[in-house]
Backbone:
């Protein structure tokens, strides 16, 4: 990975790889040359992915035999660094590429353009300016990535804010809780699958989490109220929701919900009569398929109760999962001592941005946990899955995983149809 | 098949004939002449630490015997003092043993369940072979004594019921709204109390670290919520403290910080520190931040570690000191206190730390405190010399509590109260 020298570690973009390469080139710059193809100057419809790939493909023979190294920048520019002896071949290649784009003004009206189609440099003579240019590309790319990320975060935050509405007050909470006691919440129960994901992004379901959708709850019971505005009132609300979830599970379990499931409860609820009733209705064998999810603030707000409750449920065969862990809390809390069976780590770009040290720490942590005990949740894009796999995590949950499941089932459906057609 | 009696809850009449103890004695009388195959197991749950003897824990422990009671000739008696007695006929000892192991496991954190490796002494349970005359007589004697104590206990329980009525309705969203409203508008200056945090030197004498200022919850209750148990829900209580924070800050803002001689500490929510109310205080504090200490509750910290870190950093940068409060000494083994990077960590003394015997727990705790940094530890809620001794034995040198307040008087600070406006 390129080290910008200010101590920050970056992601391996082409720009960073180029910068890294140019730095290392300093020792071998004699006898080396650089050609910079300004394909960023092409008209947009001429510099699509396939155009650039085709152009880059022309360098293959020289890359294969180690004569040169190619970098394709985000802006579509091509950077080729090569041994001086290959000058004639490189000139031929550049000619070929020109030909590919000869109807674009960049080539057709080259004298009128601010930049030539290709700039040629001697690595030895022009080293300083090459280095400067590589650095500026790397900087620009980092800025761009940060901007994209914060735009996405800002957009997500804005959307959330617009959806939020009036903050919850004790009076409103009281009315909500009364309504909840009587309401039928069964159609607000959602299910999200925790899956292993293979190299081809095909998911394999391991268990599913059942939860009451707060968003839908709000829409049905309380439009215009921000249920999560105050943390404490919300925590109190979740206790009521937990109890309702338990009573729903008590009624429906066995028949309708198959496979291993997890659900959220408060420690106080585990020690209550509601849980006793729920547990009485569960077959002993079924308990082993159930995972109880707890929050750290709940655990530490009354540690003795937690320890007792944990012993009690684990003895019966339930497993305990610590939910909502992040980079800071996962290093702080001794999960082994707490007797936790599974841990859910919430995906956040900061896990990647933390750099090598953080990655290594997480990888060690994952290895120490043992296979399949650490779950990466809120995976809402592919980056989350890729990152998780890179540090040894095998189980994932989130919107992106749900989309992989949908895609996979579509694929299977198509296959089924195809087979049926073939047989008929 | 047997029935499971309910004497562990404070319900039912005070009639001596219907106590569990009397029912058990009746049973023993009937067994006496034909006791072949009968045995009794007496689980001494009454000897558990107070915080482990909560009704729902005992309830759950009792239910552990359900499978045995349903499948064998066994009867469970729940005595008034919380002991459990199992009377069995022709039940395989191993079957009973495995249940006892489970119950023992539930209370594994309690020293009562420790088995001394050198002796066979088991303080948790005693077995009696009722077909043996001596055993029978011993057991009968034990139960007779307990029956007498039970009568006394029933009287006490009646008194306790009255007290519980005095504790009042639990705090709920419904009554919370009204209480919050009243609090927001009332004068709190005369409800503010203070408590000294003292560094105790081995040579005698002490040094004042700070005075903790707090709003007396007893007075709040009296004035604003006479029939309400404010501590029924930790979440709703924490919500209430957000209003109390603002009231306290409103008083403190009038303080002459330049003239303040002794540092003071205040409990605040993380959200309050990040609010405008705190900015106002900060302006009033000016260059005297070193005289002000901010205390955060662990439940608040764990609810949002990021915000806590941010608040802590911004406070420490400006010269304030930070205390992590609300910790059970037990919890130090379950997370890295040093990771919270506070100036002090306050753990609360409780009757469960009687320290009568040299536990392995004490050694463990000493190690944990040393690892966390004994110089940052404050032992709070110190109500006796015993507590101070316990703390000193663990390497703690800073103390706070009623007993310390007395010490402060004895040592004779001889100074004016810290501020003119704050009641002492």
Residues:
């Amino acid at each position: 990975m390129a080290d910008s020298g200010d101590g920050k570690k970056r992601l391996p973009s082409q720009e960073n790889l180029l910068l890294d390469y140019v730095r290392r080139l300093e020792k071998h710059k004699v006898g080396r040359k650089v050609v910079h193809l300004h394909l960023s100057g092409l008209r947009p419809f001429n510099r699509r992915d396939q155009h650039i790939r085709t152009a880059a493909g022309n360098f293959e023979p020289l890359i294969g035999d180690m004569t040169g190294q190619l970098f394709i920048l985000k802006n579509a520019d091509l950077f080729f660094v090569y041994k001086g002896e290959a000058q004639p071949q490189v000139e031929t290649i550049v000619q070929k590429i020109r030909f590919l784009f000869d109807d674009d003004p960049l080539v057709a009206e080259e004298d009128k353009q601010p930049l030539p189609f290709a700039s040629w440099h001697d690595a030895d003579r022009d080293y300083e300016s090459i280095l400067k240019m590589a650095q500026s590309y790397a900087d620009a790319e980092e800025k761009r990535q940060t901007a994209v990320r914060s735009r996405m975060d800002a957009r997500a935050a804005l959307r959330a804010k617009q959806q939020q509405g009036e903050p919850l007050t004790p009076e409103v909470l009281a009315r909500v809780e009364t309504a909840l006691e009587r309401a039928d919440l069964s159609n607000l129960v959602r299910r999200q699958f925790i899956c292993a994901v293979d190299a081809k992004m095909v998911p394999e379901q391991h268990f599913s989490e059942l939860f009451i959708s707060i968003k839908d709850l709000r829409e049905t019971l309380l439009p215009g109220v921000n249920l999560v505005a105050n943390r404490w009132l919300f925590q109190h609300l979740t206790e009521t929701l937990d109890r309702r979830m338990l009573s729903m599970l008590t009624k429906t379990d066995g028949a309708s919900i198959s496979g291993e499931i997890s659900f959220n409860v408060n420690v106080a609820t585990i020690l209550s009569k509601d849980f006793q009733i729920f547990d009485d209705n569960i077959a002993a064998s079924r308990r082993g398929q159930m995972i109880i999810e707890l929050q750290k603030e709940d655990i530490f707000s009354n540690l003795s109760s937690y320890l007792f409750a944990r012993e009690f449920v684990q003895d019966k065969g339930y497993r305990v999962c610590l939910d909502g862990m992040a980079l800071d809390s996962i290093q702080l809390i001794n999960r082994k001592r707490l007797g936790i069976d599974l841990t859910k780590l919430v995906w956040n770009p900061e896990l990647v941005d933390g750099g090598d040290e953080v990655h290594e720490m997480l990888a060690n942590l994952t290895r120490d946990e043992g296979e399949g005990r650490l779950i990466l949740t809120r995976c809402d894009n592919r980056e989350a899955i890729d990152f998780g796999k890179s540090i040894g995590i095998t189980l994932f949950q989130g919107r992106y995983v749900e989309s992989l499941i949908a895609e996979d089932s579509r694929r299977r459906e198509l296959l089924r149809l195809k087979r049926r057609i073939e047989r008929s | 098949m047997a029935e499971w009696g309910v004497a562990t809850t404070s319900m039912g009449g005070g009639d001596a004939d219907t106590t569990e103890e009397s029912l058990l004695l009746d049973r023993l009388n009937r067994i006496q002449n034909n006791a072949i195959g009968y045995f009794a197991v007496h689980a001494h749950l009454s000897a558990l630490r107070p915080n482990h003897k909560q009704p729902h824990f005992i309830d759950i422990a009792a239910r552990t015997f359900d499978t045995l009671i349903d499948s064998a000739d066994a009867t469970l008696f729940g005595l008034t003092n919380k002991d459990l007695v199992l009377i069995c006929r022709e039940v395989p000892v191993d079957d009973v043993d495995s249940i006892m192991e489970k119950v023992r496991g539930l209370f594994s954190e309690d020293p009562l369940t420790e088995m001394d490796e050198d002796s066979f002494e088991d303080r948790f349970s005693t077995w009696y072979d009722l077909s043996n005359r001596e055993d029978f007589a011993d057991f009968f004697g034990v139960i007779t004594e307990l029956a007498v104590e039970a009568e006394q206990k029933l009287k006490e329980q009646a008194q306790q019921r009255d007290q519980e009525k005095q504790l009042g309705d639990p705090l709920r969203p419904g009554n919370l709204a009204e209480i919050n409203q009243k609090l927001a508008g009332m004068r709190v200056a005369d409800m503010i109390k203070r408590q000294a945090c003292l560094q105790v030197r081995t040579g005698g004498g002490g040094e004042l670290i700070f005075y903790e200022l707090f709003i007396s919850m007893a007075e709040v209750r009296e004035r604003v919520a006479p029939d309400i148990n404010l501590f029924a829900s930790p979440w709703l209580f924490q919500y209430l403290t957000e209003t109390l924070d603002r009231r306290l800050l409103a008083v403190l803002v009038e303080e002459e910080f330049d003239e303040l001689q002794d540092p003071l500490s205040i409990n605040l929510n993380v959200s309050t520190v990040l609010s405008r109310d705190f900015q106002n205080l900060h302006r009033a504090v000016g260059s005297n931040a070193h005289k002000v200490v901010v205390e955060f509750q662990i439940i608040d910290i764990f609810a949002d570690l990021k915000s806590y870190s941010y608040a802590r950093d911004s406070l420490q940068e400006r010269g304030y000191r930070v205390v992590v409060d609300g910790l059970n000494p037990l919890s130090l083994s379950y997370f890295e206190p040093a990771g919270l990077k506070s100036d002090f960590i306050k753990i609360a003394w409780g009757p469960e730390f009687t320290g009568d015997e040299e536990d392995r727990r004490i050694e463990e705790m000493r190690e944990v405190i040393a690892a966390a940094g004994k110089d940052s530890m404050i032992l709070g809620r110190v109500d006796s010399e015993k507590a101070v001794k316990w703390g000193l034995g663990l390497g703690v040198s800073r103390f706070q509590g009623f007993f310390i307040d007395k010490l402060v008087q004895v040592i004779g600070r001889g100074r004016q109260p810290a501020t003119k406006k704050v009641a002492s």
About this structure: The longest strand of chain A covers residues 203-212. The interface with chain B takes residues 169-171, 173-174, 177, 230-233, 235-236, 239, 271-272, 276, 296-297, 300-305, 307-308, 311-312, 315, 326, 328-329, 331-334, 337-338 of chain A (CB under 8 Å). Residues 1-11 of chain A have pLDDT under 50 and may be disordered.
